[in-house]
Specification:
With 272 residues, the chain is α+β, with helices and mostly antiparallel strands. The chain has 10 helices and 9 strands. The strands form 2 sheets. Strands 3-4-2-1-5-9-8 form a 7-stranded mixed sheet, with helices on both faces. A two-stranded antiparallel ribbon has the order 6-7. It starts with a helix and ends in a 7-residue tail after the last helix.
Length: 272
């Protein structure tokens, strides 16, 4: 979508204040803990762009609240497994030897969008230590929610997702659908705890030096499998839709999302 297209579909620009008001109407409350996924362009023209949206979210939760966003860096994986596109085999040794180690302060997110990329650099942001599936947090308890993120558990029980679930967080999907709801990856790991694991490798700092670290992690569902869960949550009134800019947001309790997915998935074969 070009900027001209964005202008054409926006009758009037959204602002920090108008977005904050719509988020309040959607159920965001002071003191809340929220996991946020966004598509900025889906919301239309915003005066201030990603800055205004982040400000509106922080206004909504206030001093005692916590905002968390994914800050994944999927390019810090083994290049031998890259498929879209694959890289020449002759490059592999060079990429493994010279890709900079994961650094929470400097490693950019990849494929997360403008809001999440800005958010990881926001004043006071704390980012978890996982090289490919990190999360960034701003607000009360940011350090605690991002601590202890184990290398072999990117989206499971040591990840910020489990901490958010324990904290009774809400999930906000702003201009996006349930196919990007990372909390459902935690649900799938609880539904199928014995799923096969696959080999991975990333450049990290270990004992003060850069290493190419090999590890394993669980196989994950394609996110398209999350869409029926989300549709069911909406149909049963467990998720709510609200206006946001020229688009919409979705709000659902993390506990409801995980419990609902488990009801659908437990005892079933792993989807293919």
């Amino acid at each position: 979508m070009t900027e001209a297209d964005l202008l054409a579909r926006t009758p009037f620009p959204a602002t920090r204040d108008s977005l904050a008001a719509q988020l309040r109407e959607g159920g965001l409350r002071p003191g809340a803990t929220v996991l946020v996924h966004t598509s900025l362009r889906a919301l239309g023209w915003i005066a201030g762009g990603p800055v205004a949206l982040i400000q509106a979210l922080l206004d909504g939760v206030g001093r005692d609240g916590l905002v968390v966003m994914p800050a994944h860096s999927s390019d810090l994986t083994d290049p031998a497994q890259w498929q879209a596109p694959p890289v020449p085999a002759a490059w592999l040794d060079t990429l493994r030897a010279h890709t900079p180690a994961y650094d929470p302060a400097t490693t950019p997110s990849r494929g997360m969008g403008a809001v999440a990329e800005l958010f990881r650099t926001w004043p006071g942001a704390v980012r978890s230590q996982h090289p490919t599936c990190s999360f960034a947090a701003v607000g009360a308890g940011a350090a605690a929610i991002t601590a202890g993120h184990a290398l072999e558990d990117p989206l499971g029980e040591t990840s910020p997702l489990a901490g958010l679930l324990r904290a009774d967080a809400d999930i906000l999907l702003l201009g996006v659908g349930f196919d990007v709801c990372t909390m459902l990856h935690l649900a799938e790991q609880r539904a199928w705890p014995e799923r096969p694991r696959h080999a991975e490798a990333s450049p990290i700092m270990e004992n003060g030096r850069r290493v190419w670290k090999r590890y394993t992690q669980p196989a994950l569902l394609d996110a398209d499998h999350f869409l029926p869960v989300g549709q069911s949550l909406l149909e049963q009134g467990l998720a709510t839709r609200f206006a946001l800019g020229v688009g919409h947001g979705l709000r659902v309790s993390a506990r409801h999302a995980v419990a609902h997915a488990l009801l659908r998935w437990q005892g079933q074969p792993v989807p293919t």
